[in-house]
Amino acid sequence: MHLLTRSSLDDLNARMAEPLPVSRFRPNIVVDDLGGPYAEDGLLLAEIGTARLAHCKPAIRCAVTLVDQDKGAKTGKEPLRTLAAYRRHPGGGVAFGTKLSVTRPGAVAVGDTVTCGEAPPGGAPRASPSKNPVSR
């Protein structure tokens, strides 16, 4: 699953001449905010609706983000050029959003609360509720 926050998209759009819609990045789940732009980078565990998700890897962006879905055509070098200026990943490429694996299947719906958690070394997962609902 690809999760992206609106706060991250807002930050990216503030850096670009023309803002992009969230659909350009094809996320499965859009959350308003998790504590500021790019907070999803540190998301280890999440419960949304009845599903449980765990961090898998950063969402490394590809050339498909250069295509305007409405026009069906490549539109230039954005957003990859802007992302490359500040979101380079040490393993290569540019990261925008996070990939999560499903550890407990369940239903996810618009408006569900996101409960974020962390897994301490050798311990059971801890969760803390977020006041930020799923927005897509």
TrEMBL record:
Superkingdom in the source lineage: Bacteria
All residue ranges annotated as the MOSC domain in the record: 1-117
Residue stretches of biased makeup (Low complexity): 117-127
InterPro entries: MoCF_Sase_C, Pyrv_Knase-like_insert_dom_sf
Any Pfam family matching the protein: MOSC
Region feature (Disordered): 115-136
SUPFAM superfamilies documented for this protein: PK beta-barrel domain-like
Entry protein name: MOSC domain-containing protein
Species assigned in the record: Actinokineospora soli
